[in-house]
Design goal:
By secondary structure, the chain is of the alpha+beta class. The protein is about 60% helix and about 15% strand. It has a 3-stranded antiparallel beta sheet. β2 and β3 form a beta hairpin. The longest helix is centred in the last third of the chain and has 15 residues. The protein is globular, with a radius of gyration of 15 Å.
Length: about 90
Amino acid sequence: MGLQHTLKALADPIRRDILNMLKNGRLSAGEITEHFSVTAPAISRHLSVLKEADLIRDTREGKFIYYEINTSVLEETMLWIADLKGANEYAEK
């Protein structure tokens, strides 16, 4: 989707918390919502932003939607940040 969308999605603390929750395995929207003091529609919007940035994937099972983290986009972002930082330069020293 692009680095701009990824960084925008990661800028919000609730979205970062959602990603931290999903690193332990997939969760339903309801399970995610239970951990926050914001409304279900607000969590739904956060999930949409994460999905648009390709940071999460969703799977419908019956009447539930389960979300899981997409680590490939995070890996690409980390590589870009490491390159920006000059990590290769530090590794050579």
